[in-house]
Design goal:
The chain has 15 helices and 11 strands. By secondary structure, the protein is an alpha/beta fold. It folds into 2 domains: about 5-245, TIM Barrel, CATH 3.20.20; about 255-325, Non-ribosomal Peptide Synthetase Peptidyl Carrier Protein, Chain A, CATH 1.10.1200.
Length: about 325
């Protein structure tokens, strides 16, 4: 049984990665239904929380059925991170996660996210401050290092464990790599093999099929896997991996009816949570993923992203279901 503090996550948990502008409550709802064992909010700026920025505060919204769920924070200032951890704790998540992995310029060039990989002593002090600021378990998500010459994740893992983190997720790329090239899990495996490491180690990067999850689980010995981009428009990946790990068999892909139903659930939650205009606008990035690989989908997609009322989108989804059911 894998545990973070007192949170029991099963034998080999599958985690939903925190993704900016993706991992909102509507998306998390369909991933939870798809079998995700632990989810995180979109990452939240510590400075934004303290300024009481509306967007940052809204990201604290969590729902009972999502549990266990973590709130992920990022920032460059230790005191700001400490205070934001206290604010996030009041939202009553199950854990607090610190982002030391985000590679984008707007974050890393301000000394937050993956930038902390260039200053390990500061990263350690920041982590310790957050651990002391909350009664909740604190976890960390990071990368192998800043670049090829500074892959310091083995040292980072030991030092963060020493100041009290209770789980570590490692993305198998450096900051310089961004999301390019293939994720290298070799060092993730070495961290897991280190006899000094007692906390759960989760691997992240490039897991996009049940077969790959099975292979990486066995090859690198991680306690669980975090899935990000592969879950966008395909929340069924969690149940497919679980089924394959248990039985060695592949589940059939979701039917057109399942895809429509899940897409509709996602849309309706999005509209309910954000209001019709913004809910519809933010759903537009998901349609292509829900129907990826479907022939002749382009014209339907164009209509979906141009539609500006919920009823219009529901009508188009009905058409899509009829069209592809007839083809089958």
């Amino acid at each position: 049984m894998v545990k973070i503090g007192q949170i029991e996550l099963g034998e080999f948990p599958l985690l939903l990665a925190p993704m900016e502008d993706v991992s909102d409550p509507p998306f998390r709802a369909v991933c939870k239904a798809g079998g995700a064992d632990l989810m995180y909010t979109e990452f939240i700026s510590s400075e934004g929380l303290i300024r009481d920025a509306i967007k940052s505060k809204q990201k604290l919204d969590i729902f009972e059925y999502e549990r266990p769920i973590g709130i992920q924070l990022f920032g460059s200032n230790i005191e700001t991170m400490r205070i934001s951890a206290q604010i996030a704790t009041q939202a009553n998540p199950d854990l607090i996660d610190i982002n030391y992995g985000c590679p984008v310029k707007q974050v890393a060039c301000k000394g937050a996210g993956a930038a902390l990989l260039q200053d390990i002593p500061k990263m350690v002090r920041m982590t310790e401050a957050v651990v002391k600021a909350t009664h909740l378990p604190v976890t960390v998500k990071t990368r192998l290092g800043w670049d090829e010459n500074t892959k310091n994740i083995e040292e980072v893992a030991e030092r963060l464990q020493d100041v009290g983190i209770q789980a570590l997720t490692i993305h198998g790329r450096t900051r310089i790599q961004m999301y390019k090239g293939e994720a290298d899990w070799t060092l993730i495996g070495k961290v897991k093999e280190n006899p000094r490491i007692k906390i759960p180690i989760f691997g992240n990067g490039d897991i996009d099929s049940p077969q790959k999850a099975f292979a990486y689980k066995n090859r690198y010995g991680v306690d669980g896997i975090m899935i990000g981009r592969a879950s966008i428009g395909y929340p069924w990946i969690f149940r497919e991996i679980k089924h394959f790990l248990q039985t060695g068999e592949l589940l059939p892909p979701p039917t057109i009816e399942e895809r429509i139903k899940t897409c509709l659930t996602h849309l309706q939650f999005s509209v309910k949570w954000k209001g019709e205009r913004l809910g519809i606008l933010e759903m537009r990035r998901h349609y292509a993923s829900y129907f990826k690989g479907f022939e002749n989908f382009k014209s339907f997609r164009m209509r979906l992203v141009q539609a500006d009322t919920e009823s219009e989108i529901i009508h188009i989804l009905d058409e899509i279901e009829q069209f592809y059911t007839t083809l089958a």
